[in-house]
Write a structure and sequence with these properties.
Number of strands: 12
Radius of gyration: 27 Å
Helix content: 40-55%
Low-confidence stretches: 325-352
Distance between the termini: 47 Å
CATH superfamily of the largest domain: Jelly Rolls
CATH topology of the largest domain: Jelly Rolls
Number of helices: 12
Order of helices and strands: EHEEEEHEEEEEEHEHHHHHHHHH
């Protein structure tokens, strides 16, 4: 549930500089914040925390101003990025590179590590409103790899940005029904969509796909869908995709593989992931073998050992034992030493 970060009116708005970062100065970063004096002053900011990330909805009936100088940066080197979704009024961002004005429907990313000045202007109905997200820059860089050190502006024309805003709004408005893990997953999904939108904006004209590229996509999708079927064959894929077996082989050669190499590689990779993430009490190795399309557990075991250097039972034992030791160490607050997991030939770890 969202909490009030700050609330200002005629009685206390001159104290905003001491209060805008919350009761313990835990939000945002240092800077000069002030509110324009006028007949109506009603400024409210509400916050929903998701781990190290804060989703903040801010609404004001007065113009707001914020300045971060080099002196502020020297005193407080907190490196935060802020994602802004403007819904009412305007946001004017100024730095050494000039001024930019964001209007309703615009999206902005700003960063705290270079000086800037922001003016939040109300609209004709005396309303300024933004939804913004404060996130440590090192976290955001997992999704947005483009440079935004001096500000990044985009119009909300891409569907990804609109969907991201809806997701973040839903997380903000949640009344406690969402668990922490689900809230984090949704926020990360929104960041992923924003990252995709930023990347796509740099190349507005995607390369045209050839007929062979489109056919290959259809083939790979068909194989993915039917991977668990032990009867999967070139004839089955060719018929399902409306092409000849010879053309199917040609398409896979474009990808640098053959049908059998691709299918067995995918089946073994999925089986390995399944073995490492499942409890032996919940699903057996035989069930996993059949679940990824092997006709027999023996065949699965032979191929698995040939590729990964250990049979499925040995591999699962290593994963499960390591997980047990780590869980026990965490529960007992005991340090886990690297020596607890010596590396054996092949790159994986084996408990002694």
């Amino acid at each position: 549930m969202a909490e009030t970060l700050f609330s200002f009116d005629k009685r206390n708005f001159r104290d905003c500089q001491q209060m805008f970062r919350g009761t313990r100065d835990q939000e945002y970063y240092r800077g000069d914040f002030w509110i324009e004096d006028g007949s109506t002053i009603d400024v409210r900011s509400e916050r929903k925390a998701v781990g190290a990330i804060s989703i903040i909805k801010q609404r004001s009936a007065a113009n707001l101003f914020f300045r971060r100088s080099r002196q502020h940066i020297r005193e407080d080197a907190t490196d935060l990025a802020i994602l802004w979704f403007v819904t009412h009024g305007e946001l004017v961002f100024s730095n050494q590179y000039g001024n930019k004005v964001a209007k309703p429907g615009d999206f902005i990313i700003t960063r705290s590590m270079s000086p800037f000045f922001i003016e939040c202007r109300t609209d004709g109905d005396c309303v300024h409103e933004v939804l913004h997200v404060t996130v440590p820059t090192h976290i955001l860089r997992s999704w947005v790899r483009q440079d935004f050190s001096t500000g990044l502006f985009m119009a909300m024309e891409r569907a990804e940005l609109a969907i991201a805003e809806n997701i973040l709004t839903d997380v903000f408005e949640d009344d406690g029904g969402l668990g922490e893990d689900s809230a984090r997953l949704l926020v990360e999904t929104a960041f992923g969509l924003i990252g995709n939108a930023v990347s796509a904006s740099e190349d507005p004209q995607p390369a045209r796909q050839s007929i062979a590229d489109r056919r290959l996509e259809e083939v790979l999708r068909f194989i993915e869908v039917h991977l668990s079927d032990p009867q999967l064959s070139t004839a089955m894929v060719a018929k399902g995709c409306g092409i000849s077996p010879r053309y199917l082989s040609f398409l896979l050669r474009l990808r640098g593989t053959s049908f059998s190499e691709l299918v067995w590689e995918q089946r073994l990779a999925k089986a390995k992931a399944w073995l490492s993430s499942s409890d032996p009490r919940d699903i057996s190795i035989s069930e996993i073998a059949y679940g990824v399309g092997f006709k027999s557990p023996a065949h699965f075991s032979r191929m698995f050992k040939r590729v990964f250097g250990a049979n499925p039972r040995e591999y699962r034992g290593e994963c499960y034992s390591e997980e047990t030791v780590l869980a026990a160490a965490e529960a007992e607050l005991l340090p886990v030493q690297e020596a607890d997991f010596p590396v054996h030939p092949g790159g994986s770890t084996r408990l002694q």
